[in-house]
């Protein structure tokens, strides 16, 4: 069962081929057997999952069902889940049991899905390799020497290894798309405001957005439909109807106008990644699309702008972890100052501290105009680049990441890690949606056989179009059906 897509599993449940309990048990057994080395889960909530599965089976028997009733999935460990540890990959929240459900979790539960547990991630979603987790690194199912990407690395690895058919991630600067690319799965970052952020542990509030990670675009379409929508508890969620994202999947692509941003094919792009992307573009041409070069002239400002804005917002969001109300508290504090200082020094890891320091500096008096304000102005120019591009073309395409997955421990310098985000970050700054789909494999050592992701970008709220374009590609190719050897293992 583990080799089926979410859509196929939903059909199997509907036809009575298996029950949600059987499905849930099968995936739990796989997690039990295969996750020791992968480390993709922080918490497995087996007991609760079986209760939810039985509830789904009972609902089905009563005829009270939706398209996702009884389907298992997993949640990145920054979605608050009532009564379940929600750590954000940090020692700071290792003892935090969330008192309520995030809106995404509430919606998934209302849709009848079954959560198998919480997946590993870079601490507070800061990272591109999952090496910044308090719970240890995650391994890439395609090659245990490689990272799975980050920060939603646990979600990506769990789906790629067939431990769960789908998982939720979040994307602030690439955290869904880059790990999806590294692990050979499909990951969608929706438009900012499409999905409620209520109950998602905040990193950079003007950029954070939740989205689905699964085998196929079709699976992502079902999941996005379940989690999208306006929420009074998140003032940045947009009051706009949620379409049926599966409806346009089969629309033919004849006449589709594709733009290739020339800045996404420049220095630093791995040749194997480039050739996979160019081959993928040819597939679209064979489906009747036209292709032209586009320029996004402010692209090179995206990383500097993001690494001012994101740490600034993080330094403010993370001020709440003070050891007083919840989270890690140091032993025997001498006074309040000592409590703050030691709780934070012990609770946060190195990268989180680095970003809090950077953010506090750029927001401090005398520096605000030079850094934060300027970065916001640059952000506006970056957004305008995309708006101009979408006057000319329907979608943009390029690589999700400049390289395939790199080796664990290979990038020690934080700047070289930040450069990983070169093709993903501008999308968050502009607030537009983006999807990464499997598009081939790298050749040559050490990346031989590691997946490559094609990134497809659309205008604000063009998710249905992106899913259509991605689905048509998946009808014409089989990259998304390839499995790492680990995932072939049956029980
Ligand atoms: N959170 C993300 O989207 C990942 C990004 N690499 C960051 O560290 O900020």
TrEMBL record:
<keyword id="KW-0648">Protein biosynthesis</keyword>
<dbReference type="Pfam" id="PF01425">
    <property type="entry name" value="Amidase"/>
</dbReference>
<comment type="function">
    <text>Allows the formation of correctly charged Gln-tRNA(Gln) through the transamidation of misacylated Glu-tRNA(Gln) in organisms which lack glutaminyl-tRNA synthetase. The reaction takes place in the presence of glutamine and ATP through an activated gamma-phospho-Glu-tRNA(Gln).</text>
</comment>
<dbReference type="InterPro" id="IPR023631">
    <property type="entry name" value="Amidase_dom"/>
</dbReference>
<keyword id="KW-0067">ATP-binding</keyword>
<feature type="active site" description="Acyl-ester intermediate">
    <location>
        <position position="175"/>
    </location>
</feature>
<keyword id="KW-0436">Ligase</keyword>
<dbReference type="GO" id="GO:0030956">
    <property type="term" value="C:glutamyl-tRNA(Gln) amidotransferase complex"/>
</dbReference>
<dbReference type="GO" id="GO:0050567">
    <property type="term" value="F:glutaminyl-tRNA synthase (glutamine-hydrolyzing) activity"/>
</dbReference>
<dbReference type="GO" id="GO:0006412">
    <property type="term" value="P:translation"/>
</dbReference>
<feature type="domain" description="Amidase">
    <location>
        <begin position="22"/>
        <end position="467"/>
    </location>
</feature>
<dbReference type="InterPro" id="IPR000120">
    <property type="entry name" value="Amidase"/>
</dbReference>
<dbReference type="InterPro" id="IPR036928">
    <property type="entry name" value="AS_sf"/>
</dbReference>
<comment type="subunit">
    <text>Heterotrimer of A, B and C subunits.</text>
</comment>
<keyword id="KW-0547">Nucleotide-binding</keyword>
<dbReference type="InterPro" id="IPR020556">
    <property type="entry name" value="Amidase_CS"/>
</dbReference>
<comment type="similarity">
    <text>Belongs to the amidase family. GatA subfamily.</text>
</comment>
<dbReference type="GO" id="GO:0005524">
    <property type="term" value="F:ATP binding"/>
</dbReference>
<feature type="active site" description="Charge relay system">
    <location>
        <position position="151"/>
    </location>
</feature>
<keyword id="KW-0808">Transferase</keyword>
<feature type="active site" description="Charge relay system">
    <location>
        <position position="76"/>
    </location>
</feature>
<dbReference type="InterPro" id="IPR004412">
    <property type="entry name" value="GatA"/>
</dbReference>
<protein>
    <recommendedName>
        <fullName>Glutamyl-tRNA(Gln) amidotransferase subunit A</fullName>
        <ecNumber>6.3.5.7</ecNumber>
    </recommendedName>
</protein>
<dbReference type="GO" id="GO:0016740">
    <property type="term" value="F:transferase activity"/>
</dbReference>
């Amino acid at each position: 069962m583990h080799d089926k897509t979410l859509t196929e599993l939903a059909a199997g449940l509907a036809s009575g081929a298996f029950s949600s309990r059987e499905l849930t048990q099968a995936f739990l057994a796989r997690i039990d057997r295969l996750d020791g080395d992968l480390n993709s889960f922080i918490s497995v909530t087996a007991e609760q999952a079986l209760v939810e599965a039985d509830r789904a089976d009972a609902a089905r028997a009563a005829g009270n069902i939706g398209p996702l009733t009884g389907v298992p999935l997993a949640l990145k460990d920054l979605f608050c889940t009532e009564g379940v540890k929600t750590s954000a990959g940090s020692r700071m929240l290792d003892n935090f049991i969330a008192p309520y459900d995030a809106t995404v979790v509430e919606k998934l539960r209302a849709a009848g899905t079954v959560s198998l547990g919480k997946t590993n991630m870079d601490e507070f979603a800061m990272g591109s390799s999952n090496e910044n987790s308090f719970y240890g690194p995650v391994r890439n199912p395609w090659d245990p020497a490689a990272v799975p990407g980050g920060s939603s690395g646990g979600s990506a690895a769990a789906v790629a290894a067939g431990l769960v058919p789908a998982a939720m991630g979040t994307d602030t600067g690439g955290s869904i798309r880059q790990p999806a690319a590294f692990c050979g799965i499909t990951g969608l970052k929706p438009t900012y405001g499409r999905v409620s952020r209520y109950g998602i542990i905040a990193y950079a509030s003007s950029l954070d957005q939740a989205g689905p990670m699964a085998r196929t675009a079709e699976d992502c379409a079902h999941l996005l439909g379940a989690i999208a929508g306006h929420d009074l508890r998140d003032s940045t969620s947009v009051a706009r109807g949620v379409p049926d994202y599966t409806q346009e999947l089969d629309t033919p692509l004849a006449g589709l106008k594709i733009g290739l941003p020339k800045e996404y094919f420049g220095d630093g792009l791995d040749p194997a990644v480039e050739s996979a992307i160019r081959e993928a573009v040819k597939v679209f041409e064979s489906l009747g699309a036209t292709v032209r070069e586009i320029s996004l002239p402010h692209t090179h400002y995206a990383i500097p702008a993001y690494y001012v804005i994101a740490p600034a917002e993080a330094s403010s969001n993370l001020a709440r972890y003070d050891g007083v109300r919840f989270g890690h508290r140091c032993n025997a504090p001498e006074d309040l100052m000592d409590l703050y200082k030691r709780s934070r020094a012990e609770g946060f890891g190195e990268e989180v501290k680095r970003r809090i320091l950077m953010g506090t500096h750029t927001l401090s008096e005398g520096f605000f105009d030079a850094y934060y304000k300027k970065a916001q102005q640059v952000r506006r120019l970056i957004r305008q680049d995309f708006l101009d591009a979408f006057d000319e073309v329907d979608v943009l395409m390029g690589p999700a990441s400049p390289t395939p997955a790199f080796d664990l421990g290979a990038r020690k310098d934080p700047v070289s890690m930040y450069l990983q985000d070169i093709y993903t970050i501008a999308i968050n700054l502009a607030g537009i949606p983006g999807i990464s789909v499997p598009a081939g494999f790298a050749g040559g050592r050490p990346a031989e056989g590691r997946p490559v992701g094609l990134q497809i970008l659309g205008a604000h709220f063009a998710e249905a179009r992106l899913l259509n374009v991605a689905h048509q590609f998946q009808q014409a190719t089989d990259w998304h059906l390839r499995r790492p050897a680990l995932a072939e293992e049956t029980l």
